[in-house]
Amino acid sequence: MLTFERVADDGAARRGRLHCRHGVFETPMFMPVGTYGAVKGMSPAALRDVGARIILGNTFHLWLRPGTDVIARFGGLHRFIGWNGPILTDSGGYQVFSLTAMRRITEDGVRFASPINGDRLLLTPEESMRIQSVLDSDIAMVFDECTPYQTGDRLTTEREAAESMRLSLRWAHRSRSAFDAAQAAKGSRADSESSAGPETEADSGSRADATSRTNALFGIVQGGMHESLRDESLTSLTEIGFDGYAIGGLSVGEPKAEMQRIVAHCAPRLPADRPRYLMGVGTPEDIVTAIGNGIDLFDCVMPTRHARNGWLFTRHGDLKIRNARYRDDRRPIDAGCHCSTCAHFSRAYLHHLSRIGEMLGAHLATVHNLHYYLSLVEDARAAIDGRRFEHWRAAILSDRASGLPD
Amino acid sequence: MLTFERVADDGAARRGRLHCRHGVFETPMFMPVGTYGAVKGMSPAALRDVGARIILGNTFHLWLRPGTDVIARFGGLHRFIGWNGPILTDSGGYQVFSLTAMRRITEDGVRFASPINGDRLLLTPEESMRIQSVLDSDIAMVFDECTPYQTGDRLTTEREAAESMRLSLRWAHRSRSAFDAAQAAKGSRADSESSAGPETEADSGSRADATSRTNALFGIVQGGMHESLRDESLTSLTEIGFDGYAIGGLSVGEPKAEMQRIVAHCAPRLPADRPRYLMGVGTPEDIVTAIGNGIDLFDCVMPTRHARNGWLFTRHGDLKIRNARYRDDRRPIDAGCHCSTCAHFSRAYLHHLSRIGEMLGAHLATVHNLHYYLSLVEDARAAIDGRRFEHWRAAILSDRASGLPD
Asked: What pTM was computed for the model?
């Protein structure tokens, strides 16, 4: 189980420290997304260099490729991918529900056709917990239905959102039970497993912890855009009891104001002594605002995916490196940035690499964007420690809106 | 001009030290290929880490993208790409002649349609020297025709090879004149250019050298598979006088024995006090054999291109990482390898990354393959220094033929 230290508060914003099986990190924190067991283009060492302390793995993708039998051979995802720090895994639910045309939801779980080879598969709370147990992530997520904002042109009704949320609650119960059973079984096998490490030197340091502590499970608040449903979800989840609580079902196509309304409503109602995680969010502005609401953890593909498309984040707004204006621009992306890309490379070179589709360009852009996101949460932490969060937040939003200097 | 120190000999094999404008390196040496100003997936720091000391840039590609106007803004390729060590550029000839259907050769040069946008372009010895002067490579190559081994099913005749070689000789004269004129002009502009560096901190250390020394130009021996034509080319080139001499027109589809025959014939006849460069070669076996003939420099896309296709080089032969047998193999590529990929990652993880097409897999494979090639020439140097080259060569060829242990 994980320990969450409260370090400081500033208004609703919180500074914390999360002790996981594979390490300790400060919150608020952003988690880069490593879908298939790799943050695209980034080695574990490169991730450390940009300030990453916890990464996210996608249960659904890893289940299909390479498959749990392979990861079990390594004793978990950490040793398979060579990342020794904390890992959070999602439940696979979000990905399954994204396969709208190919899946059928029942009380039991979700039946769907594998997008890799068409195999008929069934994902249930129990199967999700089994997979996450094999992945051996520091933080697992309950299997839930991510209630859609709309289907086609039609908005999800309150009744549909309620049914979806209550199904997720029943699945949260089953997830809790299955997770606890898997952890108990793993604890009793721990001694025999301690010899199952990889033959590389990857992470021998974490072995002692592995036998002495168990992983954590987070609940996920659903309920669509309806405060009363969110309250019902939140109350029921806290009755079950989780190591942390996430707000799910946002950043799914709803207007920005709707998302902010739900975050502002839910965040202060989540248990204060447990970490709070806003799933799949978002822009720098979204993150800064949500920290102000008391959120501790974030994940999003935006910095990594945008990097590969030449979209770079800076203090003064965003920069599209493929724009012809950067063709012979000798300046770094951001003269005030301390990432290794800005220390060594010009906009013109990054423009060139992006235009020719060279993967080094994607790597260097990813380094910059992840460094930007991780520096943003680092700066937020310093602002909360210094009891100047509100001033900092306003300055960040103002700088971001100002646009890049010529 | 470049200085070549002879350090040791062992039979025909040579140990040397090449002093270029941007640094000194030991020979025999392998040069990774950075076609568009980047060795695919490798930052300059990563190249240093695997042991690269000189890289090759492709004049033809860089001429088309980003264009010489952009690179001129940076005062040369080094500052544009952030690589502070020596760079060798080819002449663009090989790439132009590869456009078989789209180009026309005249005494003046080669007319062709740009594969990027269809523009009608003309590449001449003078234009190649102008471009290479803008790139400001430590070592430039003369513009020559790479005589084909065959056209369709028909082998190139001795008469055709002779005409091609003599055209290359006339172009070598023109290259020498144009190169010297460009260097002289650059020398007189050096003071005013010394303020044209990038605004990053990339390579301020190299500025002093830039004004005090000039670049080098290598001649290229042609003549197809005919010793008498090779002798004529070699004699005429040495009469013109170059800083080093390359053997071109090999590794163009000829049988391995033909290549070895021509290398064995030409290498000992090249001036002993100048570096000898075998262009576009080759496999580890080719390189080891050619070092035994007295070759000092090599370049080839094989380690980098093969890496991206999952083909990995080891002491005991080659390993195709996509093979299903590696799906859950916890061993590194080669337990005896000291590269960072083998230190941290398993075959199973690399297999997974290669199967999903993740660029981190291409990067990690490139790190391994370049480390293998650069360790190979490092070991060759040690063997020559220790006067045990022949024994080492035999052991390498035997180990490579033995196959990987199960």
From this structure: 0.94
